């Protein structure tokens, strides 16, 4: 057994990472609750005397190809049933007495834990509020068993570590009756910046924070001065305290405390000072757990701040331009690994549209040339995934007036989880600001132009809508495969000019949404301060049925038609989706086929991953329609969207009247109209991309006929400029095969990577260890075991049901549809869902808007949803509170990993 008075060299060998750090903190004079340690030698003696050595070694050797859960379960059974032996039992009793007896925490301390390369954070078990010798002994056994838990075995495998754990020590530490507790990072854990400290705090014990169940307060401090830079007051609905038995007692936090920062200025000053001292003692930034009780600051443990680094060792922080990459709601349009052709076509489209937007606001001359420098880079393509290059979007928003308000709403509408600082935001300009009178006149001109377009945006949308479909008709009814390739190529360039480049002025509509929704949120905060979080989004929702919901109702009509014809119904129920169209034709069901053809003609481009050029739509492959139709065949509640809403109106009727209500409704009407128009324009975008998809596929077949490609679909592995080069005489056809081979290998490697949803780089993104530090790793993300997840409330209502975790739209059978991201093609799958949970996205993404129209409880931005929750888990979704609670795990005979419909590729 080890105590604070033990020899440091013995502690270094036997105490494990957590124990070594406790010994260092105590010896350095910090206030650390009384502790003792059952060293690695105690566990080794237990294994040796009970005969577990050989059993565990054989289990790990035989389990290399087995399910990690099976290995973990068997290891736990062996460890929890093996005889302790008198000497080991006496050592546990002595350690309990040395820790003060009474109520203690029993914490695992792995041999490799809290190291500079591998933290093992959260991989082993710890138990709070443990009383009595028998309970302590049982928890010590469970700590030992956690050395072989499924999550720790996967953690070791993902990092190339051998399965042999090297043993596990156990810390027994006196429980502190914390009034407040939390974590202090002496470097920003997301970026590694050492010029700031990050403090997270909750009321009571830190278990609520660590488990993710409590929305903590977060304060960023200047590392040099300790002055707060940013402060976020978390909701802190609950607190965890020591109860009368093992574990924690959960109780509600008073409303006044929930809205108040849990730390005083003096608390922050003490934490800042302690952070500096502890970092100096270790010579590296630290992740420090702390608690405040009866006015005393207790240090519970400290470990190095670990950030992902290259396998060869940590790379120095590179110099160069800072960029923030965020997949937020761009993942709604471009999910997972995206082909080079899709990315370059999208990036080219965005560049043309937003340059046109700048011109529509009166930007000319040198300022327009500066805009052209960043509009081609609004999107990034990192290891095959599409990200917003976020700073450029702030620049785009700044072209319109009311930048401070609009950038906040931009963050909400994009689903950006973390705001940038006001200081950084103020440095981002679309072009170099002009000084003096000339600059003021330039800003005034843009404001006047924007105001005019803002006031007349509805008329502009109508005009654009009419002109779009007039031009679209020219491109839609063409057999591009029958045309010479150079003719199809010319038509593609014409489509870009006539449909895409004219889109720029319509971006005023997005600015109108930002401004009107921002003003609506501002009025809500001032006049309805107690309104629930979902209220503003519900109030701004388009009134009545919008164009986005039309495929839902059309599919329901098609399903009703099938139910009315028993022969058609029988055929659909027994025929595979890929064969259904031909089977209907062979059976002579011409009337129903005509209805199917009409649906495809109207909505054929509205399909999952509709903007990814490499994914066939319903025109190319109608099987997807029959998949959705099969899900819609059961009788459903045909409630219309007008009948399903009303929560926002009812709340307004109760809480807001008179002149304020009139003003509120004027702003609300503007927001609702703008969102309705945006959904119409998104359908136009879908059709434009659909026409381009048909052209590019025809160009692929033309290149195959010319011998430039081995297969027509290799065209998706080319960039748009390379296809242009082939038809403009700027690239030799024989180069294309080599490019395709290189890209195919690269995309296969990219698909195996775990992609973070947000990260920063400096300089060239792929160099200097940027992506390694950002967390680009191979293998799936590990589960933390959190039982309640939180996101942004989107549509009120409470639903319970079984989780259906999927990356493709499918029938949920009344369950809860849970996915990493959605796209407009998911709309037809919504009516069968009791609730909708989306890990990424925002309340203004397409599917979220439609879900509100259908009255489906919805929560978005639920971090870790597809990692933490498996298909078959029983969930409760509260769309008003933004919570997703795991009520029960899947049954043991539920879907296996191979059968599970959850994402096979982690983020995104």
Automatic annotation (TrEMBL):
Top-rank lineage group of the source organism: Bacteria
Occurrences of domain Pyruvate phosphate dikinase AMP/ATP-binding (ranges): 14-308
Gene3D superfamilies attached to this UniProt entry: ATP-grasp fold, A domain, ATP-grasp fold, B domain, Phosphohistidine domain
Region (Disordered): 888-908
Phylogenetic placement of the source organism: Bacteria, Bacillati, Actinomycetota, Actinomycetes, Kitasatosporales
Protein name: Phosphoenolpyruvate synthase
Transmembrane segments: none
Matching Pfam families: PEP-utilizers, PPDK_N
Domain PEP-utilising enzyme mobile: from-to ranges: 814-882
InterPro entries documented for this protein: ATP_grasp_subdomain_1, PEP-util_enz_mobile_dom, PEP_Utilizing_Enz, Phosphohistidine_dom_sf, PPDK_AMP/ATP-bd
């Amino acid at each position: 057994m080890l105590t604070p008075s033990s020899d440091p060299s013995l502690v270094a060998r036997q105490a494990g990472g957590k124990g070594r750090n406790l010994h260092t903190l105590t010896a350095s004079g910090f206030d650390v609750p009384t502790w003792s340690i059952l060293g690695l030698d105690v566990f080794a003696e237990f294994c040796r005397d009970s005969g577990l050595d050989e059993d565990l070694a054989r289990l790990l050797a035989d389990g290399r190809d087995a399910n990690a859960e099976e290995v973990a379960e068997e290891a736990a059974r062996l460890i929890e049933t093996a005889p302790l032996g008198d000497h080991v039992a006496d050592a546990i009793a002595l350690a309990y007495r040395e820790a003060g007896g009474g109520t203690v925490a029993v914490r695992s301390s792995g041999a490799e834990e809290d190291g500079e390369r591998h933290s093992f954070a959260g991989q082993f078990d710890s138990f709070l509020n443990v009383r009595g010798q028998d309970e302590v002994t049982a928890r010590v056994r469970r700590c030992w068993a956690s050395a072989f838990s499924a999550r720790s075995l996967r953690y070791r495998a993902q990092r190339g570590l051998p399965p042999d754990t090297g043993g596990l020590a156990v810390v027994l530490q006196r429980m502190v009756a914390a009034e407040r507790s939390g974590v202090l990072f002496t470097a920003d854990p997301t970026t590694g910046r050492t010029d700031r400290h990050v403090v997270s705090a909750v009321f009571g014990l830190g278990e609520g924070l660590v488990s993710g169940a409590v929305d903590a307060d977060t304060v960023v401090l200047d590392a040099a001065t300790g002055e707060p830079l940013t402060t976020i007051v978390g909701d802190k609905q609950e607190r965890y305290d020591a109860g009368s038995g093992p574990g924690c007692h959960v109780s509600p936090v008073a409303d006044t405390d929930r809205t108040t920062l849990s730390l005083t200025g003096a608390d922050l000053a003490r934490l800042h000072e302690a952070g500096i001292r502890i970092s100096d003692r270790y010579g590296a930034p630290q992740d420090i757990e702390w608690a405040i009780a009866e006015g005393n600051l207790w240090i519970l443990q400290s470990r190095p701040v670990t950030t992902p680094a290259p396998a060869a060792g940590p790379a120095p922080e590179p110099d160069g331009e800072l960029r923030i990459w965020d997949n937020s709601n761009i993942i709604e349009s471009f999910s997972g690994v995206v082909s080079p052709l899709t990315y370059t076509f999208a990036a080219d489209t965005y560049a043309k549209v937003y340059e046109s937007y700048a011109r529509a606001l009166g930007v000319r001359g040198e300022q327009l040339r500066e805009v052209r420098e960043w509009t081609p880079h609004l999107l990034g393509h990192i290891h095959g995934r599409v990200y917003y290059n976020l700073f450029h979007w702030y620049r785009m928003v700044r072209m319109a007036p009311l930048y401070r308000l609009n950038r906040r709403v931009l963050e909400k509408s994009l689903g950006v989880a973390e705001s940038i600082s006001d200081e950084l935001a103020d440095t981002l300009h679309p072009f170099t600001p002009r000084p003096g009178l000339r600059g003021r006149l330039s800003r005034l001109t843009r404001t006047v132009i924007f105001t005019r377009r803002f006031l007349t945006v509805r008329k502009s949308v109508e005009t654009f809508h009419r002109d779009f479909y007039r031009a679209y008709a020219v491109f839609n009814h063409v057999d591009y495969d029958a045309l010479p390739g150079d003719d199809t190529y010319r038509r593609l360039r014409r489509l870009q000019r006539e449909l895409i480049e004219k889109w720029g002025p319509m971006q005023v509509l997005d600015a109108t949404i930002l401004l009107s929704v921002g003003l609506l949120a501002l009025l809500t905060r001032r006049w309805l301060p107690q309104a629930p979080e979902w209220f503003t989004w519900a109030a701004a929702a388009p009134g009545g049925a919008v164009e986005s919901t039309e495929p839902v109702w059309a599919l329901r009509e098609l399903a009703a038609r099938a139910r009315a014809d028993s022969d058609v119904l029988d055929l659909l129920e027994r025929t595979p989706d890929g064969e259904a169209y031909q089977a209907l034709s062979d059976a002579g069901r011409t009337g129903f086929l005509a209805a199917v053809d009409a649906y495809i003609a109207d909505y054929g481009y509205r399909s999952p991953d509709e903007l990814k050029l490499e994914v066939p739509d319903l025109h190319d492959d109608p099987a997807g329609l029959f998949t959705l139709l099969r899900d819609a065949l059961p009788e459903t509640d045909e409630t219309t969207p007008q009948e399903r809403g009303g929560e926002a109106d009812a709340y307004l009727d109760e809480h807001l009247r008179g002149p304020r209500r009139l003003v509120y409704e004027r702003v609300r009407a503007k927001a609702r109209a703008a969102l309705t128009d945006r959904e119409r324009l998104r359908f136009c975008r879908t059709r434009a991309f659909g026409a381009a998809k048909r052209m590019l596929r025809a160009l692929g077949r033309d290149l195959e006929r010319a011998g430039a490609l081995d297969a027509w679909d290799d065209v998706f592995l080319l960039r748009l400029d390379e296809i242009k080069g082939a038809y403009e005489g700027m690239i030799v056809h024989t180069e294309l095969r080599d490019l395709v081979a290189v890209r195919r290998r690269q995309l296969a490697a990219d698909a195996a990577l775990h992609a973070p949803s947000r990260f920063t780089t400096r300089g060239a993104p792929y160099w200097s260890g940027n992506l390694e530090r950002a967390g680009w790793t191979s293998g799936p993300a590990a589960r933390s075991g959190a039982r309640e997840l939180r996101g942004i409330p989107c549509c009120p209502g409470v639903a319970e049901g079984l989780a259906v975790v999927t990356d493709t739209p499918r029938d949920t059978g009344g369950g809860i549809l849970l996915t990493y991201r959605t796209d407009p093609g998911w709309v037809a799958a919504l009516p069968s869902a009791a609730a909708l949970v989306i890990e990424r996205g925002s309340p203004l993404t397409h599917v979220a808007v439609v879900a509100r129209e259908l009255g489906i409880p919805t929560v978005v931005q639920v971090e870790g949803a597809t990692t933490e929750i498996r298909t078959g888990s029983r969930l409760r979704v509260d769309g008003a509170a933004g919570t997703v609670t795991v009520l029960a795990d899947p049954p043991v005979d539920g879907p296996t990993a191979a059968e599970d419909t959850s994402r096979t590729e982690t983020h995104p």
